[in-house]
Structure formats: structure tokens, C-alpha cells
User: What shape does this take?
Amino acid sequence: MTKKLLALSISALMTSGAAFAENIVNADTTNKEVYDIHEFFSEQGNRVKLQFPIEQAAFAWQNLSRFYPTAMIERDGEVINLPHKLNDDIGKVKATVKGETKTLNEHLDSNPVDGFLVIKDGEIVFERYNTMRKTDKHNWFSLSKITAGIELAKLVNSDKVDPDDVVSNYIPELKGSVWDTVKVIEVANQATGLNATEHDEPTADSRTNPDQPFFKWIVSIGVFEGESQKMPLDVLGEMKRRTKGGQTFEYNSINTFILSRIVENVRGLPFNEILSDDIWKHMGANNDAYTVVSPKGGYPLMFFSMNSTLEDMAKFGMLLTHQVKSLARRISLQT
Assistant: This one.
């Protein structure tokens, strides 16, 4: 059951880290340019554009704490320095995409990629930093969702959460709503059968149309601007059933928000503290990380907003592979 929860909770997480800057963002962006970027995202209707790879987002994606309130995910203990064993042949690997054949280096030269890192057997074998420095903290976007899947799986393993139980048993604010009929496993598998999905058809404008229920929720947590004055869980309590649960995969960041609240309620701590205590303090991280929190409720928004250096992101990824053995020799990861 745990493997199923973890695997399906982190599916469809790949997102672009692209930006259109040609220079190192935090080294080459002038004070005037920083001011203009802040002014741009402060204008009515522009905050929603932060999710798209526009010119201004190049700075925002490496400086998300300038635009949203955040909470720290603290490191501790020894810093594990990953050895470098760079292999130039990796940059020469070719792939054909949409009929065009390029080497990896050519791809990284011609596409808006901020950074690229490859680790094998605990060693850095290839790295490129195009628009960011090794010390810059880039937003993970939907890759952040894996954190909720991991923490939920741990609670299932320890019999503190029953995946076949309904969500409202863990989130009292949702009692008396449609969440009385939604199982935790359905949320983890992105198959609730409810409305307010992230890509509602046929127009697929959930993240841009203020009339869509998903947009109303994302306004309630302060990610986008809008007229909603409701608390986030109150907005979710208004969701309706559209189809039977557990039948159809429908990618939806609301599900990760729900899983994070379940984890917090069971553990009695904010999610950033849980992630710090369970993982970040024990993996030899180079730096603290941080996550965005909602102005209403102070909820850590783990569905899109882990921010860390690229190397620390890679160390986190190593914990989910056989390469964890190369870290485990020097660190003790809580289970």
C-alpha cells in the first residue's frame, strides 16, 4: 500500500525550470530591473503570470521569497560534499526531439534551462549552471508534491493514517462536506472524482479563469490575486462530486494541499517543521530550504513551493534511490 501511495502521489510532477534570462539572474539583474519586476507582479492581473516562463519569471523563480511569505526548512549537522567525477561524454549524448537531433550540451545552449545536474553512484558526473549559481535557491514547482507523498506514506506505514479512511476524519473543517465521501487513497492517487480540477475541460482554463473553482481556491491561499475573502478550507468544502472516486486520474494541486493538511493534523506541526525534522536536517544539505505559506491560515504550500539549491534538490532525490547508501554511510535519516 505504501509503495502505491508514494508512486502515484508523485506522478506527473515534472515541470520546467526554464527561464529566458541569458545571464546569471541574481548576479546580473540591476536594482532598476528588480524594481520593475516587483512592479510588474504588483499590477492587477499579473500575479497569475508568475506560473508562466515569461521574462519577469526568470528572476521570480529564483527569488520566490521576495513575492510571498515563506517558512524555513532548516538544515543541521555535517554538510555532505558530493565528490565530482565529471564526464564530458554526457554532454555529447544525442537525442532526437520533434525531428531535431541535438547533443545535451546543444540542448542546454539553445533552450531556457536554468541549471542541470546529473549524479551517479553518489558522484556529480555532469553539471551546468546557465542562469543560476550553485548557491541560488530555485523553486521546485510541482516537484514539491513528492514531500507530501513521502510524509503521508510514513504515517500509513506506522498505522497513523488509514488510506481507506475518509479525508474529513483527519481535517475536521471539512466535516459535513463532500470530503466525507473522499478516501485518503483517492486523494493520494489524484482520483477524487470532485470538481475544481486543475485542468478543467473543455477549456482547460482553471489556472487563469477567475470564475473557475480551482482559481477561486488558489486565490484563497494567496498565490493569485482575486476577490475571494474565504478561508482555503472553506472554499474546498464547497467542492462537488463529479464522478465516482478512484476511477479517473485528474491532476490537481488541491490534492497535495489536502495531504499536507492531513500530515500536519496527525503530527501536530507545520509541514515545514516536519520536513526539516524528518529529512532536511539529516541528509547533509548544504543550505536551508524554504516554502511559501498562505497569508490566510499560514499553510505551507507544498504543492508548488519547495525552494533550494540544485545540489540539495539532488541530495533529496538520492534518498529515493539506491544512491541513498552513499549518503547513509555518513548521515542518519529518520524513518
Remarks:
- The CA atoms of residues 91 and 106 lie 8 Å apart.
- The chain has two domains: 2-14+73-79+135-328, 88-129.
